[in-house]
Amino acid sequence: MTVSILHRATGNAMAFGAVVLFLWWLIAAATGPEAYALFMTVATSWVGLVVGVGLTWVFFQHMMSGIRHLVMDTGQAFDLATSKTFATMTMVGSVLLTALTWAAIIFGKGI
């Protein structure tokens, strides 16, 4: 049940939070160098990095949960033990993918 609620919450977070940040970036890029510099200052601050990591987790959690729902739509994984295992895998997988993504960003490119 927790994964199902998280699926809805992460969908809303992407629909509202990520879109607002994307629009801010787009408007800042179109407005000029000063506006873009302000956006980049905020985006690369510790608050911006926390939001970035959070949105990355939101994306991966929503994706992993969507895959779980897709499998369940085929009629699989309905027994309780398999369903709980699959739900746990979505949580672990999303955290692992987030960690791998940010490790590649930080160590591969250097922030």
Runs with pLDDT <50, length 5+? none
Radius of gyration: 17 Å
> Strand percentage, roughly?
under 5%
Report the CATH C-level class: Mainly Alpha
**N- to C-terminal distance:** 37 Å
- Helix and strand sequence: HHHH
Structural class: mainly alpha
In CATH, the topology is named 3 helical TM bundles of succinate and fumarate reductases
How many domains? The number is 1
CATH architecture: Up-down Bundle
Shape: elongated
What would you say about this model in short?
With 111 residues, the chain is mainly α.
Describe this structure in words.
The chain is built from four helices and no strands. It is an all-alpha fold. The protein has helices spanning 2-31, 33-43, 46-73, 80-108. The chain has a single domain (2-104), classed as Fumarate reductase/succinate dehydrogenase, transmembrane subunit (3 helical TM bundles of succinate and fumarate reductases, Up-down Bundle), CATH 1.20.1300. 88% of the residues lie in helices and 0% in strands.
Give the secondary structure arrangement, pairings included.
Elements (H helix, E strand, L loop, with lengths): L1 H30 L1 H11 L2 H28 L6 H29 L3
Helix pairs in contact: 1-2, 1-3, 3-4
Protein traits:
single chain; 111 residues; mainly alpha; 3 helical TM bundles of succinate and fumarate reductases; 4 helices
